[in-house]
């Protein structure tokens, strides 16, 4: 099954160098790329660089910035191919941002 990891941080928060409790982000990416579990992933630009698009009454409305003004932000994503939710949670628990922020694990819709 495919799972999306939404890598979340609080403003000003970053995983930084390894604190001795796990891998650096680069090591995590290398490990799960090598094992064929991580299919792709990347970091996002800052929320201030976002454009929010809404369509109301047939009119396209644009707003500079994120759709919600919060302290937390989605900093990036990783797409995984795992046997089940337990494996996806195990992989997410090893991500450095699980220590510095949080990682949301979300399965893809199976209809």
From TrEMBL:
SUPFAM superfamilies (UniProt xref): Dimeric alpha+beta barrel (SSF54909)
All residue ranges annotated as the YCII-related domain in the record: 1-108
A Pfam family reported for this protein in Swiss-Prot or TrEMBL: YCII
Similarity-based family: Belongs to the YciI family.
PANTHER family given in the database record: BLL7171 PROTEIN, BLL7171 PROTEIN-RELATED
UniProt-recorded name of the protein: Transcription initiation protein
Natural source organism: Pseudonocardia humida
């Amino acid at each position: 099954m495919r799972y999306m990891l939404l890598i979340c941080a609080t403003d000003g928060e970053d995983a930084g160098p390894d604190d001795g409790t796990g891998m650096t982000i680069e090591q995590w990416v290398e490990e799960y790329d090598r094992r064929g579990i991580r299919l792709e992933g990347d970091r996002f630009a800052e929320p201030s660089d976002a454009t929010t698009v809404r369509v109301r009454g047939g009119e396209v409305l644009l707003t500079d910035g994120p759709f919600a003004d919060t302290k937390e932000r989605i900093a990036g994503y990783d797409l995984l191919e795992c046997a089940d939710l337990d494996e996806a949670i195990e992989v997410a628990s090893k991500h450095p941002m699980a220590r510095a922020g949080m990682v949301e694990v979300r399965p893809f819709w199976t209809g």
